[in-house]
Amino acid sequence: MKTDFIFDAAQAIQRTILANEHTLESLDREIGDGDHYINMKRGATTVVDMQAELVTLSPEAALNKIGLKLLSTIGGASGPLLASFFMCMSKTLKEHGDDSLPKIAAAFAAGVQAIIQRGKANLGEKTMLDVLIPVATQFESLAALGHDAKLIASALTKTAETGMLSTQDLIATKGRAAGLGERAIGHIDPGAKSCQLMIEAVCQLV
Ligand code: ADP
Ligand code: MG
C-alpha cells in the first residue's frame, strides 16, 4: 500500500459523502438525531486538508495520524469508532507489513475488530458493522485465495451494498436507534450507508 493511495481514497470518500448529503442526513433524521452527514463531512474534509502532512508519512503512520485526528474532529458515536478502526489498522500494518493484499485485508479486519470492541456491538444490530463485518470476512478470504485486486474490489462493493440493505429489516440494539424498537424497521442505518458509500468509492480506485 502507498500513502498516495490513502490520500486518493480520502478524496474519493469526501466526494461521495458530499454527493450523498441528502441521503445521509435523512437517514439519520429518521432513526437518529440528524447529524451523521455533518459528522462524516467534517471527518472527510479534515483528512483531505491533512494532505501536506500525510504525503510525507509511511502508510501506517498516515493511518495513525488520520485516526488520532478523527478522534477529535468527528464527534458522535461514529467518531471514536472510525478513529479506532484507523489506529488499529495502522498498528497491524506496522507489525505485519503492508506489501500484500492478505496483509492489507488482515489489517482491515483488525480495524473492524477494534470497532466491535470499542462499541460492543456485532453483526445484526443495525449499525455500520452490518457492512464492515461481511466486507472484512470476504476481503480476507478472497485475498487468501490469491484473487486480484480488481476482482476483490468488485466483490466487496456488492457485499457492502447487501450489508447496507440488510439493515433495513433490522431492529437496532446499539446506538441512538436502539430506543426506537420496531419503529426502526424499514429504515436503513445511516452509519451502514456511509460505510457502504466509502467502500464503494475506495474500491472504484482499484
Ligand atoms: P450519533 O449516533 O452519536 O448521532 P452518528 O450519527 O455520527 O453519531 O453515527 C451514527 C451511526 O453510528 C449509526 O448509524 C451506527 O451505524 C453507528 N453506531 C452507533 N453505535 C454503534 C456501536 N456501538 N457500534 C457500531 N456502530 C455504531
Ligand atoms: Mg447522529
Overview features:
single chain, 206 residues, mainly alpha, globular, binds adenosine-5'-diphosphate, binds magnesium ion
CATH architecture: Alpha Horseshoe
Present as ligands are: adenosine-5'-diphosphate, magnesium ion
Radius of gyration: 16 Å
Largest sheet: none
What would your notes on this structure say?
It is a single chain. The protein is mostly helical and 206 residues long. It has a single domain, classed as Serine Threonine Protein Phosphatase 5, Tetratricopeptide repeat (Alpha Horseshoe). Helix content is 71%, strand content 0%. The protein has ten helices and no strands. The radius of gyration is 16 Å and the shape is globular. It starts with a helix and ends with a helix. The mean pLDDT is 97. The chain binds adenosine-5'-diphosphate (ADP) and magnesium ion. Adenosine-5'-diphosphate (ADP) binds next to helix 3, helix 6, helix 7 and helix 10.
Report a brief summary of the structure.
By secondary structure, the protein is mainly α. It is built from 10 helices and no strands.
